[in-house]
């Protein structure tokens, strides 16, 4: 079934013109994104492949190379029809008038990548719990592995607002894989901001290229929302500058697959001021992983506990000063929350488009379901929620970029609203598909599953309200 957009009753959903995405016209990748590669023109996947084979864009390899992602397996073939239809959906947005020329180009680049490298395979990765590391490296080849890091360490030097535009376009195709990419970027930006110059130079190049993948380790079995109560310890070894880490981290995205773990551990007193942040190598003696969690969504990325049993970490791997770890962790989460929110926006926008396409062709009672005014109102409400979320995300991103005093509260507000409302939108889209929405033949069920966790992680939405309320009370005092 091909989704139709010649609606019996037109609903004005402005779309990024399909032709411009397929043909791409020719556009210059921005100076910020490409740095020294600025004059290269990307037209299509073929061009990306050509650039790669000439070694210009690292990590974008011949799509015929063997990996799970090149040819759907028999078990995934049942999704082929739905996937083929979805492949024609393109990321849409109502905020193009707010975007800079550069942001429009970033968005085009990300949409093109999402269309070619994520959307055709997302259902299969979800089903097979496949973590598409090679595809992530291709994304890094376009500059998406170190969005907020400096050019000198291979980063793209972009703003939070730029990042939101890119992640929304990627999440439109695959929420789960994009969400991991946001976590990796959160880790890289943490080092960019709080690392010494030596640490930046030592650690960031392999992170921005995604030769090494990173995980963020705050949560523990007995310390979730109350993160400042964490119990993992980091003690100086007598007669040495090394630290010895002991404890367990829970729910770590990328756990077991990532190469680098940014671990918050207690070096001092109880509470937030006794916490420090450490860069821990996967190969460290004493580091091990729990079983891979079997999750409702986010199945294209692994989640596991991380166990530290007398793990020796040299002093040069302390990020920031002793006692600054909690501040560092929370400040990283400001950006992380904006990115999780923007992943919700991208996923929900896909659901609106998919639902609109479906109800335009599905007939009951002798007419297309979209001809019922109730359906039109539902679609209008869904799109309003997505757009309101997008506006809050952009507002929070610009607040963070400009270091506004309300940036943390804005990030919490955007995360709370966008992740709640976009989940509701995905659920509504499933409802509009009727019984078919409950089947894996249609992608909306995967979006519902993937979006659900966004209201829980990187601080639950109850904790987002705590953050906002604290800011309100403090600013009134
Ligand atoms: C798939 C997945 C991936 C994750 N990835 C990571 C990761 O990469 N790194 C990492 O460090 N963590 C990660 N997490 C952990 C996540 O951040 C925590 O699950 C989350 O912060 C909540 O902690 P908790 O699960 O312990 O819930 P709890 O803190 O036990 O909360 C349970 C319930 O009580 C509510 N509650 C708690 N305190 C209050 C309060 N003061 N007021 C009102 N309500 C309250 C909560 O909102 C929640 O509804 C991940 C979690 C999941 C599910």
Automatic annotation (TrEMBL):
Domain Acyl-CoA dehydrogenase/oxidase C-terminal: 323-472
Acyl-CoA dehydrogenase/oxidase N-terminal domain ranges (all copies): 100-210
Cofactors demanded by this protein: FAD
Domain of life, source organism: Eukaryota
Gene3D superfamilies: Acyl-CoA dehydrogenase/oxidase, N-terminal domain, Butyryl-CoA Dehydrogenase, subunit A, domain 2, Butyryl-CoA Dehydrogenase, subunit A, domain 3
Pfam families: Acyl-CoA_dh_1, Acyl-CoA_dh_M, Acyl-CoA_dh_N
UniProt cross-references to SUPFAM superfamilies, sorted A to Z: Acyl-CoA dehydrogenase C-terminal domain-like (SSF47203), Acyl-CoA dehydrogenase NM domain-like (SSF56645)
Region called Disordered, residue ranges: 59-78
Keyword field contains rRNA-binding: no
A Gene Ontology biological process term: branched-chain amino acid catabolic process
Recorded GO MF terms: acyl-CoA dehydrogenase activity; flavin adenine dinucleotide binding
Protein name: Isobutyryl-CoA dehydrogenase, mitochondrial
Protein species of origin: Physcomitrium patens (Spreading-leaved earth moss)
């Amino acid at each position: 079934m091909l989704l139709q957009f010649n609606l019996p009753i037109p609903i004005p959903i402005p779309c990024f013109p399909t032709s411009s995405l397929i043909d791409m016209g020719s556009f210059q990748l921005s100076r910020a994104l490409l740095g020294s590669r600025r004059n290269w023109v990307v037209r299509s996947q073929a061009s990306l492949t050509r650039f790669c084979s000439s070694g210009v864009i690292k990590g974008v390899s011949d799509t015929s190379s063997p990996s799970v992602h090149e040819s759907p397996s028999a078990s995934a073939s049942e999704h082929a029809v739905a996937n083929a239809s979805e492949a024609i959906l393109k990321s849409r947005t109502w905020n193009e008038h707010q975007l800079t020329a550069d942001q429009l180009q970033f968005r085009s680049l990300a949409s093109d990548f999402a269309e070619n490298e994520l959307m055709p395979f997302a259902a299969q990765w979800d089903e097979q719990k496949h973590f598409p590391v090679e595809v992530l490296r291709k994304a890094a080849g376009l500059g998406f592995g170190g969005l907020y890091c400096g050019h000198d360490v291979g980063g793209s030097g972009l703003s939070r607002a730029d990042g939101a535009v890119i992640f929304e376009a990627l999440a439109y195709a695959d929420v789960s894989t994009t969400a991991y990419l946001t976590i990796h970027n959160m880790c890289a930006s943490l080092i960019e901001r709080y690392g010494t110059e030596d640490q930046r130079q030592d650690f960031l190049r392999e992170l921005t290229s995604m030769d090494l993948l990173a995980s963020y380790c705050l949560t523990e079995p007995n310390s979730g929302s109350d993160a400042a109560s964490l119990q993992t310890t980091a003690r100086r070894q007598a007669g040495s500058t090394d630290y010895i880490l002991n404890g367990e981290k829970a729910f770590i995205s990328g756990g077991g697959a990532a190469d680098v773990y940014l671990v918050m551990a207690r070096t001092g007193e109880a509470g937030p001021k006794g916490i420090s942040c450490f860069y821990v190598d996967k190969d460290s003696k004493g580091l091990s992983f729990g079983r891979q969690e079997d999750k409702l969504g986010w199945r294209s990325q692994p989640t596991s506990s991380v166990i530290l049993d007398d793990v020796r970490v040299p002093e040069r791997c302390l990020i920031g000063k002793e006692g600054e770890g909690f501040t560092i962790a929370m400040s990283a989460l400001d950006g992380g929350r904006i990115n999780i929110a923007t992943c919700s926006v991208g996923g929900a926008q896909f659901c609106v488009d998919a639902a609109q396409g479906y109800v335009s062709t599905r007939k009951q009672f002798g007419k297309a379901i979209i001809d019922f005014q109730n359906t039109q109102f539902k679609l209008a409400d869904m799109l309003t929620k997505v757009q309101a979320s997008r506006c809050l995300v952009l507002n929070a991103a610009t607040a963070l970029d400009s270091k506004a005093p309300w940036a943390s509260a804005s990030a919490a507000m955007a995360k709370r609203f966008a992740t709640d409302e976009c989940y509701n939108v995905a659920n509504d889209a499933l409802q509009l598909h009727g019984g078919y929405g409950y089947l894996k033949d249609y992608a909306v069920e995967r979006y519902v599953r993937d979006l659900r966790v966004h209201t829980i992680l990187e601080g639950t939405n109850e904790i987002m309200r705590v953050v906002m309320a604290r800011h309100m009370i403090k600013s009134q005092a």
